[in-house]
Amino acid sequence: MEKEPGLVEELKITVLADDYAGQNSPFWAQHGVAYLIDVGVNGVRKRILFDTGSFAEPILYNLGKLNLEPQDIDLIILSHSHFDHTGGLVGILKAMGKDYVPVIAHPAINRTSFAAEPFWFDAGYPMAAARREAAAAGAHWVPVASPLRFGTGMLYSGTVPRENDFEAAKAIGLYAIENETVVPDEIMDDISLYFQTAAGLVVVTGCAHAGIINVVNYGVKLTGEDRVTAVIGGFHLIDAADSRIEKTVAALRKQPGAKIYTGHCTGLKAEARLLDAFGQDFTKLCCGMVINPV
What we know:
By secondary structure, the chain is α/β, with parallel strands linked by helices. 22% of the residues lie in helices and 28% in strands.
C-alpha cells in the first residue's frame, strides 16, 4: 500500500511533564507541561520538545527513566509564556549541549504577565533574561505569530482566532504591560500544534487558553482535514462554569472517533465529564505515558 503524500507517517508522543505522575509510577510529576513528540516522514525521524515544564530536573530525570537523552531533541516549541511551560527551557538547553537549537514561540511570549492578588506574582517566565541565557546555551529564537509549517504534515498554529461565544477571549486574573500601560492579559500568545496523518488530524496543545474548540476548529480550517483523530493536552477548564464544560464536550463529540487525552489545567470536574462522555476514548495524561495516535 502506497503511503499518502504530505502526511506524518509515524507519530509518538511521550509525556515528560504533567501535574500527575500516575499510580505506582517511577516518573516525577511537576506543575506544568512537556511533551516529547517523535515524528517520522520518508525515513527521517525528528524529536520535538513541546514546552519545558516549570523545572528542567524532573524532565531530565524522566528522560533518563525512558532511556532517552536530552541530546536526542532536535527542536523546541513553546506554547505560551507561563512559567509552567517555559521554566525548564534553559536547564534543558544546557543539558542538550548543542550549539544550535531552534526555539519556536509566539513573539508575545516576551511580554510581562503577572497576577496582582494577593501580591505581585510573575505568571510568565522572565523571558528577557531567559532569552539571553538560552541563546548562550545554543537557542536560535524563531518568533512567529502566523501559522508555520515546520515539517511535512506538521503545523504550528500561530495566533488562534477566538470565535466561539463560550470561549471568547477572557482574562483569568492576569495582567500585562503594553505600551507602558496595564491591561488584562488574554494570553494571545497561546499556540498549538497540528499533525496530519492517514488516520486524521492530531491536535496537541499546552493549555488551550484560546479555547480548546477554537484550537481544534482552527486546525481543521488550516489543514483542510475532515477527521480529528486525537486531541491531546491541557484544556484549561479548571475554573470553567458547568455551561462551558458542557458546550466543550458537545463540540468535541462532533468529531466521531476522536480520542481525548487531557491533563494539567483541565480540572477534575471537566475530566470527569469527558470520561463520562467519551468512555474508553478518554485518557487522563500522566508522566511517562506514551501515546501512539496513528
